[in-house]
Structures are given as C-alpha cells and as structure tokens.
C-alpha cells in the first residue's frame, strides 16, 4: 500500500514537466510583478521570490533584490493550478497571494491568473517561465 502511495505521489509530480526547475515571472503591466525560482522536487518548492508594486519591493533575499524581507508561506501546484502565498518575515500576515491557471495544448503552456497584495491591490497577471 505504501509503495502505491509513493508511486502515485511521484507520478503526480512528474505530470507537470514545464515547472520541473527554473523560474517564473508574473506581471500585471507596470502595476506589479512577482518573480520566483523553484527547485527539483515532486512538489512545488519555491526557493526565492521577489515582488514589486509600484516602487514598493519585497524579497526572500534582500541582499540580492533590495526590499522588505518576506518568506514563502505555502505553495501548491497541480496539472491545472499554481498557488503561492508570501508572508512577512515573522509569518504573521499574508503579503501576497498568487493564483494561476495552467493551460497546455500541443506541448505549449500558458499561465494566467491573479496577484493580490493586501493593502495595495489585486491585478490580473500573465506569467512566463524565465
């Protein structure tokens, strides 16, 4: 039974090859942008993120991308959706919520959804692998 569960988990992660490793940037025109990097795991493993809304910036690594420190609160991906919640450095409040739908046809992937930054706004976003 455990072997079947482990195999199902591995296959579920392998079903989304477009996000095996690398990065993605989601933009709302000039209003907002969220970029994130992810690593090799059978689940979405966000290893870095930077967010800008106008001139306000946040980052999981402020030494590289100047901004207020943030952390990845949670991240989830399946064949059709990708969701990331970013939180403040003390993990006391949500800083941003990304909700993306994934469409695939003939080997091409398209990503689009919403980015919500409480106190700043919510926007439709288009995302591209980077």
User: What share of residues is helical?
Assistant: 10-25%
Measured between the Cα atoms of the first and last residue, the distance is: 39 Å
Unreliable spans are 1-19
Order of helices and strands: HEEEEEEEEE
Percent of residues in beta strands?
Answer: over 45%
Total number of β-strand segments?
9
Instruction: Give the overall average pLDDT.
Output: 85
Structural class: mainly beta
Shape: globular
Q: What is Rg?
A: 15 Å
Largest sheet: 9 strands, mixed, barrel
Number of domains: 1
Q: For the largest beta sheet, what order do the strands appear in spatially? A: 1-2-3-4-5-6-7-8-9
Tally of helical runs: 1
Describe the protein's architecture and organization.
It is built from one helix and nine strands; from the N terminus they run H-E-E-E-E-E-E-E-E-E. It has one domain. The protein has a nine-stranded mixed β-barrel. The N terminus is likely disordered. The chain is globular. The protein is mostly beta strands and 130 residues long.
Name a few traits of the molecule.
130 residues, mainly beta, 9-stranded mixed beta barrel, 10% helix, disordered N terminus
Describe the secondary-structure layout.
Blueprint (H helix, E strand, L loop, with lengths): L1 H13 L7 E7 L3 E7 L7 E8 L2 E4 L8 E10 L3 E8 L5 E12 L2 E10 L3 E9 L1
Parallel strand pairs: 4-5
Antiparallel strand pairs: 1-2, 1-9, 2-3, 3-4, 5-6, 6-7, 7-8, 8-9
Offer a concise description of the structure.
It contains 1 helix and 9 strands; from the N terminus they run H-E-E-E-E-E-E-E-E-E. It has one helix at 2-14, and strands at residues 22-28, 32-38, 46-53, 56-59, 68-77, 81-88, 94-105, 108-117, 121-129. The protein has a 9-stranded mixed β-barrel with strand order 1-2-3-4-5-6-7-8-9.
């Amino acid at each position: 039974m455990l072997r079947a569960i482990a195999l199902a988990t591995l296959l579920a992660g392998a079903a989304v090859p477009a996000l095996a490793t690398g990065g993605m940037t989601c933009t709302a025109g000039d209003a907002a942008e969220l970029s994130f990097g992810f690593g090799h795991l059978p689940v979405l493993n966000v290893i870095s993120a930077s967010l800008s809304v106008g001139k306000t910036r946040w980052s999981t690594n402020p030494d590289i991308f100047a901004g207020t420190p943030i952390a990845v609160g949670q991240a989830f991906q399946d064949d059709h959706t990708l969701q990331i919640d970013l939180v403040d450095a003390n993990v006391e409040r949500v800083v941003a919520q990304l909700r993306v739908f994934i469409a695939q046809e003939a080997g091409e992937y398209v990503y689009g959804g919403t980015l919500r930054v409480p106190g700043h706004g919510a926007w439709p976003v288009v995302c591209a692998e980077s």
